[in-house]
Amino acid sequence: MTPHVLSVLETFVGLGSRRFGEELVRVTNLPSGTIVPILSRLERAGWLAASWETPEEREAEGAGWRPLRKYFELTNEGLAKATVALLERKACQKSRSSVKTSKQRILRSR
User: Fold this and answer.
1) Residue-range definition of the domain harbouring residue 92
2) Which residues of 17-30 are buried (b: 16+ CB within 10 A; e: fewer)?
3) CATH number, domain containing residue 82
């Protein structure tokens, strides 16, 4: 799993599950050309469910006229798998950090 996919999943898990593309672009600092394919792949894999904003939701926001947003949210399966993937990344980072520290100790002892 790529770092970009993990960044998107981390956003869903950390900030709550209902998100739209432009919001993910702002939060992750990834371009829309990266975000949109990730969202499509996760939706096809069953990790995300998509729904369109209703005109009533748009009006309630008071944003004036703008195109309706396509929202994505983690499915139960997606939440479980995203949590595992993020925990694995954390364990891998910790392991790499430990290896780096060990290498530094060895080099200093020479």
Assistant:
1) 3-109
2) bebebebbbebbeb
3) 1.10.10.10
Whole-model pTM? Answer: 0.78
Sheet holding 48-52, edge to edge: 19-20, 70-74, 48-52
The model's pLDDT over 24-60, given as tens digits with 9 standing for 90+, comes to 999 999 999 999 999 999 999 999 999 999 999 898 9
Enter the tokens of residue 47: 């990790």
Q: What's the total number of domains in the chain?
A: 1
Amino acid found at 39? L
Q: d(Cα 97, Cα 79) in Å, to the nearest integer?
A: 27
DSSP string, the chain: --HHHHHHHHHHHHH-S-EEHHHHHHHH---HHHHHHHHHHHHHTTSEEEEEPPHHHHHHHT--S-PPPEEEEE-HHHHHHHHHHHHHHHHHHHHHHHHHHHHHHHHHH-
Q: Are the CB atoms for 17 and 73 separated by under 8 Å?
A: yes
